[in-house]
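During the reporting period the student researcher (J.K.) took over the structure-prediction task from the postdoctoral fellow and processed the backlog of single-chain submissions. One of the processed entries is reproduced below for the supervisory committee.
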Amino acid sequence: MATPFLVLVLIHLVIAISTKMEISPMEGQYPKLIVFSQHGMSDGNYAMESLAKKVAPPESKIIAPYLGSLPSFVPDRFRFSIETHFAIAPLIQKVAKSAEQTFQDYPYIPARIIATSLGGVIWVEVLSRHPEWWNRIESLILLGSPIGGADVAKIMSAWGFRIGMAKHLSEDRRYLAEKIAAVVPTLVVAGHIIGGWDLIVTVESTKIKHAHFVCLNGVNHSDLRTHPRVVQSIQEFWANPRNPLQI
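J.K. obtained the following structure tokens:
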């Protein structure tokens, strides 16, 4: 006859085994699609992860790296990233490392990328360094990303203030982005409030050759992460297979 102690041990053992067997809905099975969703300067990953959840097809694996260093006990919606105001190289490395690990974990699953503002600049840099990934990417969506160089950053640089992220955002990366967009179907979504800009980035600086383009009047830079019209633009782009525009 089992002693009370032995019964207690068996109960704990069953609980431990049951806990280990619990899996999340996507764990233990392959997704049908990977969706990378990257936040921009100052931000945390909450808004872009939420955007990805709104547009991602069922059975998608969402990867939304946080580029800051706040501890995990800080709720996602309250996170911010001071690190995004300084050097861009560590951010590129962090996103590339996350993507590389994801592609290794899911070697035969296609991917789509959504990136806003600085996040789009980072992804252009990442993809330009990893052309071997291009055939895995079904589409690239850039939301208010100053690929041609942010005008405010250019002005600061012209006055000698080439410091922090302003130095990096003043650069024109169209030559990189256009090589990618000639192969990977790309959608550029720009916001516009007044005077040809979204209050942070000019519409013109977001444009690249070969990319499909949508300008949303009345949508400011920050709202490109959350606005229903952005959700609609992404869904419409994904609803029908697109090819790079021929120039």
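The committee noted the following: The chain has one domain: 25-239.
J.K. will present the remaining backlog at the next meeting.
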